[in-house]
């Protein structure tokens, strides 16, 4: 029962039917113009564009994409930034830095530097800071490498560019990120040290030969990156490092006060249980514990911190009271004052110092939304700035916070650039129109949301539901749950941000499937209790939530219970295999892409969920969360798909899982993608089409989307 007519090969083409979303927004210092990266024809190569914030008029500024055939899939310009209000700007292409003057003359500068990134103009408009370094060395070893530089804007040549931080001799000691101080005289930065982190050889065959992808990769319990925050004076190049009690702890944010006399660092332990903010006197180096909060089952490190107006303490985004909200803490001895509250959550914020307001992104309107709001720093009424229509916004604020450039989308509209005037709340000007003309001629899925209780504990859950365009109530359709993942229920094109498969979802719906995603435990947006439900529970509480969604749709008459499939990649692959192993009969077929089958081989950061690799409950705790120890119980058809070069989830773990299934007599299918990375669905178009065709054929074979189960009562 097809709802629309879509061709998989046609959906995945060098020139995309949905267009190329704009990215890399950067404001001019006066806030009147915005730079962005875009391809108006829908190819992958992005050039630099600008738009007038008042009139909305846009103009293409570079034309490198004209010499790059769409079939090559080149990404184009990676970032750009204005250098003044007259139109001078800098951009990066192929890791090389270019500067374009107001007359349009383009000059390649800093020719001795590679992998240039993180361009930032100083607040006094005197320097352009950037990071450089080689991403991969000749030994085929991943090297993060990063040196921090400051180039005077009046430089006539590269000789006046000043080296500021990072180890020139050892790329394992590198600047991870940085930020300018308010006056433009100093820069705060994070120095990362990977010298103790293990290196691993990922051996595989591709191109008819043996290959080795050597990577820096730690497992739980092993050495991780060590971080130190420093401050460097741009004029002299003199840097001072501020040592923390434990350099292995995560650094979530940091910032210099407006006068530069104080530095905060927001950190947590490796389990994300203990949130601490340290405060230094930058002149004396004296450190004090400014803020701390401990939560033994804390799961998500969504904390953010910024200086309050007039440097009057800190504004802290924390879920200390159950929901992610904003608090003001004036001193180390005072208590946090709540600025916002409610059964909704804030995703990010910025401080408008001049107006003494806070601007933030939240789901106040509905769980699936991300809207921009304003609230007085002193507290008071919350006012929405973005248009009232449901959807998602990812904002970049002008320097004076008077305008907002936002990457906007909703369930039916691919991502576009919109400019919002903060003085006129509720209005926005759409700048780009990215989809190809044929997009409007196509009939797409009907997207909606369903709310239902958990069948285990009754907690409220929300699902994103994609229905065929010609859906007929009373008919029971085959259902595909997935691609399953956390944070997968969002009102934007494709729903998910991680592992996006918007067009494949549309293709499945066009063949007569219903597609469901569930905001499983561990996801953002429903408060601390909801996300803590995943604590020590990979492949347990999360898959119960997925089953609750299936039960709800069956009970409501949407779905044929005999034709339910499930699929996911990475963590979603873990949930898929665990669902098949632990819930026989619920799913008629499942596909696990790059499945994380062995949590002993996860990134150390996943200890937030699964806990440390030691304790009286080990090894049982890790075995309970590892699909490797459960795949021998699978009874229903299963397909595994994995790239051999994957450094995130090792292909050898999939081999171990298949060996266990073979030993247990579990029939399964395995699709190996030679040389493919973790993002196997987006490495290249030929591979994408091949993999999705395999998956669609597998589901069609077992779920029979063309058949009708009959009318419900």
From TrEMBL:
Q: Which GO terms describe its molecular function?
A: dipeptidyl-peptidase activity; serine-type peptidase activity
Would you say which domain of life the source belongs to?
Bacteria
Fetch the SUPFAM superfamilies from UniProt.
alpha/beta-Hydrolases (SSF53474), DPP6 N-terminal domain-like (SSF82171)
Pinpoint the Peptidase S9 prolyl oligopeptidase catalytic domain residues: 506-704
- List the GO biological process terms: proteolysis
Q: Which Pfam families match?
A: DPPIV_N, PD40, Peptidase_S9
Residue span(s) of domain Dipeptidylpeptidase IV N-terminal: 178-414
The protein depicted here goes by the name: S9 family peptidase
Organism per entry: Sphingomonas baiyangensis
């Amino acid at each position: 029962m097809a709802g629309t007519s879509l061709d998989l090969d046609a959906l995945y083409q060098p020139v995309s039917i949905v267009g190329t979303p704009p990215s890399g927004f950067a404001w001019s210092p006066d806030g009147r113009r915005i730079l962005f990266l875009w391809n108006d024809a829908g190819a992958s190569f992005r050039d630099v564009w600008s738009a007038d914030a008042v009139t909305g008029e846009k103009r293409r500024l570079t034309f490198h994409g004209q010499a790059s055939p769409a079939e090559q899939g080149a990404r184009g310009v990676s970032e750009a930034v204005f250098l003044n209000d007259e139109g001078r700007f800098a951009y990066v292409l192929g890791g090389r830095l270019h500067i374009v003057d107001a007359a349009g003359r383009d000059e390649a500068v800093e020719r001795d530097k590679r992998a240039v990134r993180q361009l930032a103009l100083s607040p006094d408009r005197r320097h352009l800071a950037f990071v450089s370094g080689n991403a991969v060395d000749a030994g085929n070893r991943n090297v993060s490498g990063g040196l921090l530089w400051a180039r005077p804007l009046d430089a006539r040549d590269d000789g006046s560019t000043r080296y500021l931080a990072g180890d020139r001799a050892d790329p394992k000691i590198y600047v991870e990120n940085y930020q300018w101080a308010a006056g433009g005289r100093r820069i705060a930065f994070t120095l990362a040290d990977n010298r103790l982190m293990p290196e691993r050889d990922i051996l595989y065959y591709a191109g008819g030969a043996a290959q080795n992808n050597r990577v820096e990769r730690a497992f739980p319990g092993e050495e991780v990156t060590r971080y130190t925050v420093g401050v460097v004076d741009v004029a002299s190049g003199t840097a001072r490092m501020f040592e923390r009690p434990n350099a292995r702890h995560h650094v979530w944010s940091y910032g210099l006060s407006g006068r530069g006399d104080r530095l905060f660092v927001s950190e947590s332990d490796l389990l994300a249980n203990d949130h601490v903010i340290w405060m230094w006197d930058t002149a004396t180096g004296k450190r004090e514990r400014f803020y701390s909060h401990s939560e033994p089952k804390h799961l998500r490190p969504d904390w953010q911190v910024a200086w309050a107006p007039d440097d009057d303490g800190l504004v802290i985004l924390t879920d200390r009271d159950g929901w992610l909200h904003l608090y003001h803490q004036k001193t180390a001895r005072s208590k946090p004052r709540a600025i916002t509250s409610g059964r909704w959550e804030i995703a990010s914020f910025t401080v408008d110092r001049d107006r003494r307001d806070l601007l933030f992104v939240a789901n106040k309107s509905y769980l699936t939304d991300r809207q921009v709001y304003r609230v007085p720093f002193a507290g008071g009424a919350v006012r929405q700035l973005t248009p009232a229509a449901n959807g998602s916004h990812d904002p970049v604020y002008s320097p004076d916070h008077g305008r907002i450039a936002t990457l906007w989308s909703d369930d039916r509209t691919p991502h576009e650039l919109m400019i919002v005037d903060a003085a006129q709340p509720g209005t926005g000007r759409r700048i780009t129109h990215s989809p190809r003309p044929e997009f409007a001629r196509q009939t797409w899925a009907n997207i909606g949301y369903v709310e239902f209780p958990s069948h285990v504990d009754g907690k409220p859950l929300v699902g994103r539901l994609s229905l065929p365009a010609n859906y007929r109530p009373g008919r029971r359709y085959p259902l595909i749950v997935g691609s399953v993942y956390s944070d997968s229920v969002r009102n934007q094109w494709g729903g998910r941000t991680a592992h996006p498969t918007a067009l494949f979802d549309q293709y499945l719906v066009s063949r007569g499937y219903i597609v469901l995603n569930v905001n499983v435990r561990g996801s953002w947006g429903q408060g601390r209790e909801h996300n803590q439900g995943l604590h020590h529970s990979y492949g347990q509480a999360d898959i119960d939530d997925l089953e609750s969604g299936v039960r709800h749709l069956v009970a409501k008459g949407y779905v044929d219970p005999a034709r339910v499939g499930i699929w996911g990649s990475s963590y979603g692959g873990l949930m898929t295999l665990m669902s098949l192993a632990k819930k026989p009969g619920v799913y008629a077929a499942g596909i696990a892409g790059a499945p994380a089958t062995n949590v002993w081989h996860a990134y150390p950061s996943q200890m937030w969920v699964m806990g440390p690799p030691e304790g009286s409950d080990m090894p049982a705790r890790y075995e309970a969360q590892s699909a490797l120890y459960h795949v021998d119980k699978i009874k229903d058809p299963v397909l595994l798909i994995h790239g051999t070069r994957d450094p995130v989830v090792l292909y050898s773990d999939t081999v171990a899982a298949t060996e266990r299934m073979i030993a247990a007599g579990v029939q399964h299918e395995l699709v190996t993608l030679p040389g493919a990375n973790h993002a196997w669905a987006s490495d290249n178009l030929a591979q994408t089409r091949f993999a999705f065709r395999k998956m669609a054929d597998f589901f069609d074979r077992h779920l029979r989307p063309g058949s009708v189960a009959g009318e419900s009562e």
